[in-house]
Structures are given as structure tokens and as C-alpha cells.
């Protein structure tokens, strides 16, 4: 599990997170939702130690992220940020191969190559494996980046707005792939989402954030009410159901 205890974070004089405590259980899909500036991406970065924990403590399966050696932490947890910059003259297979570095430390073997091919297949990129990244669409590059994180074969996979650059069909397809990955491998996937209905359809649990605090957390059925979402985003909504899952109607 991921244990977050009394975590606060500031950039200069601007407070981003305020004494935040949360436990994310192991397994399944947890979605972080909330308005822009809620602190979702910052929290994800702190979990992965991309930014130092200033106040409080974060543990992943008992490992304190502040004290755990980078190589060891990278075998437990992988993150895909929304602002990743990559060299475009890499092929998809080369990019995905970087996800194996925490395991082989520059000496890739048959096991590493097999895991790369599995990740490529899991993200349905077989037809693009030898293509250069600058020949792909934004959505295809996004899937390649996620495949790199999948190849890292960690128990925890953190994804920051992975649906960016994806059209409706590819966004739904990616969420279905993540759901299947969590179910088949037992991985814990924590994903920042802007569209609450993807969280409603695919997440086991939702954490709603606002103004650097946890506003609510629970199952989609318990959390996605008209009152909670209306207060969270400051806009009136209605909530229906489809296939036993809540659907938030947020259009006028």
C-alpha cells in the first residue's frame, strides 16, 4: 500500500498541499480527480520522489520514499509524467527498453527483451515497434511512454493525465488496458484523470482533491454524487447510471 502521512508541500511562499494524509490500498485502479491546481500532479510526483518530501512521510510497501535508494525504489514504483520530454529519433522498442534499466543496469538480457515485447503487446503497439517516435501521433507516443513504464514491471504504476492527446476511442481503449493490467497482474495503478466519467467507469476507488486537500475518497458509487462533484468543481451536475456505474452529466 501507499501511506501518505501529514504531507505538506510549498513552492516558495505558495502552499500546494496542506497536511494531507491518505492510504491507497494495494491492487486495482485508484483515480485522482479534482479541478486544476488541486495538487494532484504534485502528490504523484512526491510519491515517486520526483520532488522531495518537505513535510510528512510517504511509504510504498513500507519503504520510505525519502530514504530508499533510487535503484530499489525504481523496482517497486514507476511513474509516467505528463510533461516527459523524449528524443524523437528513438524507436518505440528502444524507448520501451529504457523501462528495464532498473533491472539490468545497462546489460539487457533475454528476460529484459521478453518484458519489453510483453509491454509493447500490452499497449497494442506491435505494428509501431520499429517506428521512430517522431513519426507517430501524439496518442501513439503516449501509449509508447506508458509501455516503457509497464516494462519496468513494478507493483505500482503512477500515471499523470495519460489520456492527454488521446481521442475518445483511444482514451477508452487505454483505460480498458489499464483496467485489464491491474486485474491480470495485480498491479496498483494510480492515475490522474480530468474526465470524471473515466474514473467512474474504470476505477475501484476515487480520491477527490481540491485546494491541496483531500475533499473526499471512496468508491465511484459512493463518491460520485451530484452534491460532491458540484462542490468539488464549482459547477452544477446531475448523476445517472450506466451498466451499474455512475455517470456524471456536466453539460448544460
Task: Provide the descriptors you would attach to this structure in a database record.
28% strand; alpha/beta; globular; four-stranded antiparallel sheet; 252 residues
Structural class computed from helices and strand pairing:
alpha/beta
Ends distance: 39 Å
The proportion of residues forming helix, as a percent range, comes to 25-40%
What's the count of strands? 12
Q: Please summarize the sheet with the most strands.
A: 6 strands, mixed
- If helices are DSSP runs of H or I spanning 4 or more residues, what is the number of helices? 10
Strand order of the largest sheet: 6-7-8-3-9-10
Task: Estimate the strand proportion.
Answer: 25-35%
Low-confidence stretches: none
Structural Rg = 18 Å
Q: Tell me, rounded to a whole number, the average pLDDT.
A: 91
Shape: globular
User: SSE string, helix = H, strand = E?
Assistant: EEEHEEHEHHHHEHEHEEHHEE
Overall description:
By secondary structure, this protein is α/β, with parallel strands linked by helices. The chain has ten helices and twelve strands. A six-stranded mixed beta sheet has the order 6-7-8-3-9-10, with helices on both faces. The termini are far apart.
Brief overview, please?
The chain is of the alpha/beta class. The chain has 10 helices and 12 strands.
Strand and helix map with partners:
Layout: E1 2-11, E2 14-24, E3 28-33, H1 40-47, E4 55-60, E5 63-64, H2 70-73, E6 77-80, H3 92-97, H4 101-104, H5 110-122, H6 138-151, E7 156-160, H7 168-185, E8 188-192, H8 196-202, E9 205-210, E10 213-218, H9 220-223, H10 226-233, E11 238-242, E12 245-249
Amino acid at each position: 500500500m501507499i501511506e501518505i502521512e501529514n504531507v505538506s508541500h510549498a513552492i516558495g511562499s505558495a502552499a500546494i498541499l496542506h497536511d494531507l494524509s491518505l492510504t491507497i490500498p494495494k491492487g486495482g485502479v485508484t483515480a485522482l480527480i479534482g479541478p486544476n491546481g488541486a495538487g494532484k500532479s504534485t502528490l504523484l510526483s512526491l510519491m515517486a520522489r520526483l520532488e522531495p518530501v518537505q513535510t510528512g512521510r510517504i511509504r510504498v510497501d513500507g519503504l520510505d520514499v525519502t530514504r530508499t535508494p533510487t535503484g530499489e525504489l525504481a523496482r517497486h514504483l514507476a511513474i509516467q509524467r505528463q510533461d516527459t520530454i523524449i528524443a524523437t529519433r528513438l524507436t518505440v522498442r528502444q524507448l520501451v527498453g529504457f523501462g528495464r534499466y532498473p533491472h539490468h543496469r545497462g546489460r539487457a538480457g533475454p528476460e529484459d527483451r521478453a518484458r519489453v515485447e510483453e509491454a509493447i503487446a500490452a499497449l497494442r503497439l506491435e505494428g509501431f515497434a520499429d517506428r521512430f517516435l517522431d513519426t507517430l501521433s501524439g496518442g501513439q507516443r503516449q501509449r509508447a511512454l506508458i509501455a516503457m513504464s509497464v516494462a519496468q514491471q513494478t507493483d505500482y504504476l503512477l500515471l499523470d493525465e495519460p489520456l492527454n492527446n488521446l481521442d475518445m476511442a483511444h482514451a477508452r481503449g487505454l483505460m480498458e488496458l489499464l483496467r485489464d493490467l491491474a486485474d491480470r497482474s495485480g498491479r496498483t495503478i494510480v492515475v490522474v484523470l480530468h474526465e470524471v466519467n473515466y474514473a467512474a467507469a474504470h476505477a475501484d476507488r476515487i480520491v477527490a482533491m481540491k485546494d491541496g486537500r483531500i475533499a473526499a475518497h471512496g468508491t465511484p458509487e459512493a463518491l460520485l454524487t451530484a452534491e460532491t462533484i458540484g462542490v468539488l468543481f464549482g459547477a452544477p451536475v446531475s448523476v445517472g447510471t450506466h451498466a451499474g456505474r455512475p455517470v456524471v452529466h456536466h453539460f448544460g
